[in-house]
Amino acid sequence: MIINFSVENFASFRDCQTLSFEATGDKHLEDYYVYRVGKYRILKMALIYGANASGKTNLLVALQFLRHMVLKPKVSKDESLEYEPFLFDTDFASRPSVLRIEFIQDNIKYEYEVKFNRTAVLYEGLWYAISKRAKVFERHTDIKNETVSIDFGSKIRIRKNEKEFLENSTLWNDTVMGGFMKSSVAAWISGTNINPLLSVKNWFEDVLMNVVIDESNLFYYVTDALKKGKIERKEFIELFKHADFHISDIAIEEKEVSLAEKEKELLKLLNELNPESKLNQIDTNEIKKINVKTIYNIKDKKFTLPFELESDGTQRFYGLIGLLSLVMHGSKVLPVDELEASLHPDLFNFVVLTFLKNARNSQLIATTHQREILAKRYIMRDDAFWIADKGNEWAATELYSFADFGTKVIRKDTNRLNVYKSGKLGGIPDVWSFTLE
After folding, report:
1. Which one of 323, 342, 361, 415 is most buried, by most CB atoms within 10 A?
2. H-helix segments, 213-311
3. What is the mean pLDDT of residues 378-385?
4. For residue 227, how far is the Cα from the chain centroid?
5. Are 335 and 209 in contact (CB under 8 A)?
6. Which alpha helices (DSSP H) does 328-437 contain, by range?
7. Are the beta carbons of 139 and 150 closer than 8 angstroms?
8. Is 41 helix (H, G, I), strand (E, B) or coil?
9. pTM (2 d.p.)
10. In this model, does residue 419 exceed pLDDT 70?
11. Radius of gyration of the chain (CA)
């Protein structure tokens, strides 16, 4: 689970901003929102509000960027890091960008930090804490020589030749974690009864999920998980019924389709353009096509409907509920952009409440414009609701939660929706005229 995530000089973020999942002392909805790990009380959800172009999505993009830095190693020193620093202050163009995350994996706290620019990873550090905080490694880059040096902590056991091997495997534009994944050092490094680099790699790979954006096609991901039994079918259908969709079952059909010669040539061209694509695993002689049909029982008669004829809302709900089924039965971090997309406000509340009531040690990070939930005190908790705002001289993203406001602005009996709509909390567009000159 994430404890906090910090972003500096990345996209619309100028100064360091931190999204924290550490719960305040407030006991409101404790059983639903808070998960205890040792001394930590960690929130299971963060909903982020803000005007369009306020930087909400950029926070999720930064989290995804960090995931890729760990899991997708560079293969050439000439590859650039594809991102933009803060562009509205020319001084920041030459400054490093910084991403920092603290999380818990297997009841151990990890801190991971990366400083970088478009050309190279300048600094990287990893620490872990069982009883006391201890260094795993610190990495520094010699920009002139394009080389990397790694300093391991005193509790980490690694031989000299193994350390040199890892340094040589880590390109100047890559992370140590990336170098670690490319090498066989996993069998060598160990700490106090743990392999910290392997634990961190596993967290980014197995716990932190890819960001779900509005355009994401969740159909194949969820359908494949249903087909393989990763999603419990009975529970999946039950969730549909609870949400009043009248869908009684899902039928998944798979059949082999032969490719025409032109299609084979197109697939070959796509593979050449992107060798790492999963397309190159496809047998060009035969491919499998998946058809999904929704089943309805209407007046004791069974009817089937091709999935593509379902509404956008039903298709979106299919994907979200599939993901919820996965995260409710494991430890996952699910980032979703525009959670409310194509959903009725009551279905939005259904998704949120279903997650909070059933997920044990998973987290949901979502951006949204759905404001009705703010008026429902029985659902919302102030430290889990955040605002991204650009109300400063640099038009840079600032992050703060409802819990950051004093009692003069938000009291226990304050209607959060009304105070947010009034503009006292920021995070809304300043629309001042409807007349064109």
Report:
1. 323
2. 219-227, 233-242, 261-273
3. 95
4. 24
5. yes
6. 345-358, 416-421
7. yes
8. strand
9. 0.90
10. yes
11. 24
Residues 6 or more apart in contact with residue 319 via CB below 8 angstroms: 212, 216, 218, 219, 221, 222
DSSP annotation of 91: G
Q: Which two tokens stand for residue 68?
A: 């890729």
Burial tier of 155 (Cβ tally within 10 Å: 0-12, 13-18, 19+)? middle
Compute φ and ψ for 249, nearest 5 degrees: -170, 170
Q: Tokens in use for 179?
A: 């170098």
User: Contact, 80 vs 118, CB < 8 A?
Assistant: yes
- The DSSP symbol for 157 reads B
Backbone angles phi, psi at 275, to 5 degrees: -60, -25
Q: What is the C-alpha separation between 22 and 29, in angstroms, rounded?
A: 15
Q: Residue 94 corresponds to which tokens in the numbers above?
A: 């030459």
pLDDT at 281: 44
Q: Where do we find the tokens 């004829």?
A: 309
pLDDT of residue 189: 56
Give the other-Cβ count within 10 Å of 64's Cβ.
16
What pLDDT, on the 0 to 100 scale, is given for residue 280?
Answer: 45
Compute the distance between CA of residue 160 and CA of residue 171 in angstroms, rounded to an integer: 19
Per-residue model confidence as pLDDT tens digits over 177-211: 988 887 655 555 554 445 899 899 999 999 999 99
Tokens 């990345």 appear where? 10
Q: How far apart are CA 361 and CA 350, in angstroms?
A: 19
Beta-strand ranges (E) seen in 147-211 are 147-152
